Every structure is written in structure tokens, then in C-alpha cells.
Amino acid sequence: MAVFLSPVGGVAAQFFTNNGVPLSGGKLYTYAAGTTTPAATYTSSSGGTAHANPIVLDSGGRVPSGEIWLTDGTSYKFLLKDSNDVLIATYDNIVGINSNFVNFFAEEEVQVATAGQTVFTLVNPYVPGGNTLSVFVDGVNQYNGSTYSYVETSASTVTFYSGLHVGALVKFTTVQSLTSGQQTDAALVTYNEGDTGAVTYTVRAKLQQTVSVKDFGAVGNGTTNDTVAIQAALDTGKTVYIPKGTYLISLALQLKTTNQLVYGDGQQSILLTATDIETMYSSTSVFGVVLSDLQFKNTVSEILTGPTHFHVHFGTGASGCVIRNCGFNTALTGSYVRTTHHAGVWFEGANLNSILDCTFGQAQILMGSTDSTIRGGYVYAFSFQYAIKITSAGEVLVEGIRGILGGPSQGCIWIPVAGYMNKIVNNYFGGSYSYINIGNGVTGLQQQALNISGNTFHEVDGIGIYLVDSAGGASITSNSFFAGNPKQNDPTFATPGNQDILIESTAYPSTGVVIADNTFNRFNGPIEDGMPGIGKSYSIQFSGAYTAVNNVVSDNTFTQTTRYYSPAIAGIQPQNTKIGNIGVGAELSNQIVGDLNLGASGKFVNVSNTAEVAPAGNITLSINSAAGFIGLLSVGNVLTGTSGFSTKTVFGVSSTGAALVTTSLATQNGATSGRSFTVTQPSAGVLRITDTSGSAANLQLTASFSGMATFAG
Fold first, then answer.
1. Domain extents for the chain?
2. Distances from the Cα of 645 to the Cα of 499, 544, 608, 687, angstroms
3. By the 8 A CB rule, do 7 and 97 touch?
4. pLDDT tens-digit profile of 209-252?
């Protein structure tokens, strides 16, 4: 009920006797106007509590509640008496201030006349004879019939006495009244932003720029099914606002409109699924869809299964889409690892998609689109097969994620398909989770131009970085491996032996891998879960059926010697470069500082050769100095298909014409037994290395000479 302030005693009024004395105990009676029928008045603007009738004034002659409010549309009569009921004054036909106040709004319509037209039917009604209609013909007001006289025939009809010319513009302006409490059509109210250049349009058009799911009946109480209401809002194709609340979804919501923004109030706007379904799905080739500030929650919690669908799934044609500041959560725990179930976000294909500053609590990311970005937030998915899986052709950036925890099956970041130019930079892998096996840090297959830099690997239980058949190069730089990585402090896990970095060549040689400026620091004793360090492993290892070539391992630093084998770098063949590494036997070769005086003069020579040879085969080094030479010869040989060199020998060699002198300086054997060979000089200035092992298998022979080619005499 609407009430309005009374003009008699309305707010803080004080009443007096005829002698000017405050009317203590005075009485104010209220009746319907012109009658003796009592009419209620109210103590506040809510109209909820009625005054006593009469209202007895306090000692100061004031209304005790301080206010008097009157019913809208009702006329009152007031009688003011003293405490002995002696009449002082009468006030009749009193209404509340602004009661029955009439607002007006105007409606306009323009019609184009046909030749000789006299009768016009209006869309907007008016009151004939009520001075609520204005008529303009070609911009001239016809209020006095100056050119065209007309009659107001009915509420929707105007008739001119003479026909109008063809094409005449006839504007009808009608005035409608708006009484108190009446709803107004937003299409009839105009809006202007107010700044320079702003245009005027209707409030309806302004409000419809964004729709709320509440406009379509969504409740958001966590129990009412809001699927139909939210889908109706999405189907408008406009920006959709999801206010704070918990919205129960029973069927996947379809995203169908390009460049649509769907946003909420952050953690307070929750889309809840209690069954194993997708929450949102786009099956069409949408572009530019943005999901922002929403929470997606799935409560499916079967112990051995869990959800099999992602919260949000963009199909193969979706591109340029963004998910930002959203959260994805399930009810799962780390007690059972699900290798065939899913939750989180799946971009199935296309390109230029982004996941920005989102959080994943027991949920994953499957990125199948190229030229895409995953940045910020965290991804905890140790109850699933992996945390982040990349299946696109390449150019995916994973950057600045402050926590990545995967499952023991495929670990934190898994790239199981060949790709190019993926970047994994400035992320944090693992953490102090003694009860969780989070698998490998990064696993990549047949990657080209892969960049892994600036990351921290902390207690990663599997291999820190595991690359297989990287024939197109990889840059592994400025990463930190520490705190028992891999986690060899807990005897409940596998036998120690996981590497920080493993480069494996299974189908062909890995080439172009640069491992530089990384730091490796394993704790040398009890750490978070109190277990002792119980084992060792290599930090960097090259292995596989094929020998990796043209790779570089340089300027890395290793600490805590009891947690690494010495040397900490294993399996790197002479066809690769290893230099400048510090700690744990990283460099076994001697370093020569200053001038090297070989007792002869001439020019410096550095030659090498490598080849796979049949049994009893050989390779040659051409030093091209018939007069002689002096220097160091390094020879390595390995059986094809085995890992690591079998034998590596360093000789001091000198030649004066046809005479060759060789002195073995150092020999290092690999995992397999040594293979014998000979070093001869078949002609002046040429060295020949020949297999004499009698093996039935091919061998990989490699040789390099560094020294001086001497002058005769």
C-alpha cells in the first residue's frame, strides 16, 4: 500500500492552544473527508503500523512517533481538540503530499499520407477532446486548423476534412498520464548518457544491451533447475550476466553466438552439475566467446570413477575464445587416480584460444588448438591422468602457472603428439605433497623448437623433463630443480633412478637440444615428510636405441653430491658438446689454462669424424701434414642400439713423417664391455681407426684430433 506524508502534523510538527501554549495531551482525530467515519493514518512510510485514533499529543504538543502518513488516493478530515475534547480546529479534504500525483509521458508516431488520404488510424491511443493530441503536417502544428482541419474521431482515429497530398508527413503526438504505482513500459522512457555526442534512445534498448539470467526466471538457490532459464538468456546472443547464486544445471548449456560475453560475480556465481554432464558446450564454429568470473562445480564423487565430461568444452571450430578468472572444481580426492575420466576445460581444435588466471581444483586442461595460451592460476589434478595435455600442432604457451600437480600416469604437462614451437615458461611444478605422486613434470614426444625455461621443479616424483625423439631441437634453460626432485626421499614410491632431465632417442636421434644455465639442487637428508634420502640418479641423461647428436649441455650447476651419481651427466656422446658445467663430476676432462707448448711450431689443427661401420671397419682423420703433427686424439666406439659409449680413449699422438707414436692417456668404459680398436697411419698426415673387436654387430666410431701440424726440419 502506498502512503504519503500528511500536510497536517506530517513531520516533527508541534501543536499549540489558542494562547500559544504547547497542546499537551491534545487529541488529533482523523476521518474520511466530510464524514465522521474514522480513517486510519500511519506512523511511517512503510504504512505498516497505524496510529491510534485519536492521536494523543505528548507534553510538547507533538505526535509521539514524529510522523503522520496518509493512504494514497484517500481524502481526510482532521479534528484538533484539547485534552478535554474541546474543539480547536477542523481541517477537511486533506490528502497526502503528492498523493494522486499525475506524471505524463508523450508518445509519437509518424505516418506518410497517400494521395487524398483523410482517415488515419493511430497506434498510440489518446483521449478525444481531452487536449492530449497534437497533429503536425509537414512539420506545421495544426492546432488551429491552419492548413488542415481535423476531428478527433475516436481514441485511435483522426479524420481530416480534406484529403492530404501524397507523401505528406503526419506526426501524431499523444500524451498519456502515469498515476502513482503504475508500471511504465521501458520502451516509452528515454535515456541519454549525457556526455558530448551521446544519443538518446529508450531505457528498454539500454537495458537489453545486457541480459541477466534472472530476466528469464533463473533462481540460483542450488536446488531449482535453472537450465532452461540460462539457456534462454544465452540464446538472445547478447551479453549474459549471471548474478551471485548457485545455479543447478541438468543439461549442457549451448554456446551458439559469436563474440558473446558471459560473466558473473566471481566465486559467488556458481554453475553446479550434480550429474556426469558437460556444463557448457559449443558445437558450432563460434569466435570470440568470453567466459569470465564464473565458478564451475561438479559434485559427482564416485570413488572409482568420477566425471567423464569436462566442465566447458569448445568444439573443433571454436577460435579466439577466452576463459578468464574462472574456477573449475570437482568433489574428487587424491586417494584414487582416474586415467580415463575428465573435468575442467577442453579446447578441441582451431586456434587463438586462451585460458587466463583460472583455477582448477581436481580438474584438467586439454588444449587441442594452436597459437593458444594458458596463463596464470593453478592446475591441481593429481586424481586424474594429467594436469595439462597439449594435442595441437603447436605454438601453445603455458606461462606463469603458480602450481601444477598432475597424476602419476602422465604427470603435469603431457604432449603426446608431434608439435612445434610450444613454450613452457615461468611455471611452478609440484610442491610439498608427501602423499601425492604427481608423475613427470613435462613429457614431450617429437617436439620441434620446444622452449622450456624459467620453471621451478619441486619434488616432481617422476622425471622432471622427459623428451622423446626431439629431432627438431629444444631449449631447456634457466630452470631450477630442487627439494628432492625426483622425490627419492619416500621409500613407498618406485626405486630411485628418475632423472631431472632425460632425452631419449627411440625412433631416431635427438638433435639440437640445448640444456644450459639450469640449477640442480637435491636435499641431502630428511625433507618435508621426514624420510631420509635413500638413492641416487643421473641429473641429465641421454639414452635410447639411437645416439643423440649435435646437442649441447653447458653451464649447468649441480649441488648435493650424495644425491647424484658422479658424473651427474650421462650418455652424452662425442658428437655433442658438454662444457662449462659445475659440480658432481660434471666435467671429467682437464682444463688447460694459458699457452699449450707442444714442443713444435706450426699451425693449429682441429679435425673430427664419426660414422657407423661394419665389423672390422674403419674411419680416417686427414690432418694433411706430411711433415708431421703432435696433439691429442680422442676415440670412442659404441655398439649400435646400445646406450652410452662403450669405450672412450684419449691418446697423445705424434708423427714425424711416416713414424707414428701413440700414448694412451685415459680410458673410460661405458655400461657395456669395451671394444678394441687400433690406431695407425696408413700415409703421412692421415690417421686410421680400425675395429678389431671381432663383433658381429655394427659399431659407431668417432674420433677427433686437436694439435699442431708441424713444419719439416
1. 1-101, 103-178, 213-384, 432-588, 602-710
2. 19, 12, 17, 21
3. yes
4. 899 999 999 999 999 999 999 999 999 999 999 999 999 999 99
Please give the CATH architecture assigned to the domain spanning 602-710.
Sandwich (2.60)
Q: Give the containing element (helix H, strand E) for 109.
A: strand 103-112
Q: What are 390-423's pLDDT values in tens digits?
A: 999 989 999 999 999 888 888 899 999 999 999 9
Cell match 626431439: residue? Answer: 470
CATH topology of domain 103-178: Immunoglobulin-like (2.60.40)
Q: How far is CA 357 from CA 325, 369, 373, in A?
A: 5, 18, 11
Instruction: Give the tens place of pLDDT for each residue, 468-498.
Output: 999 778 999 999 987 654 444 444 434 456 7
Closest Cα partner for 704 from 685, 684, 692, 687? 687
Cell numbers 493511430: residue: 122
As given in the structure block, the three cell numbers for residue 26 are: 491534545
Read off φ and ψ for residue 329, nearest 5 degrees.
-140, 145
Asked whether this chain's domains 1-101 and 602-710 adopt the same fold, the reply is no
Distance of alpha carbon 354 from alpha carbon 418, whole angstroms: 21
- E-strand ranges in 499-601 read 501-505, 513-516, 519-521, 540-544, 552-554, 557-559, 569-570, 577-579
Pairing of the two strands 677-683 and 686-691: antiparallel
pLDDT tens, residue by residue, 556-605: 998 866 677 777 888 888 778 888 888 876 554 433 333 444 444 466 77
Q: What fold is seen in the domain 1-101?
A: Tailspike Protein; Chain (2.170.14)
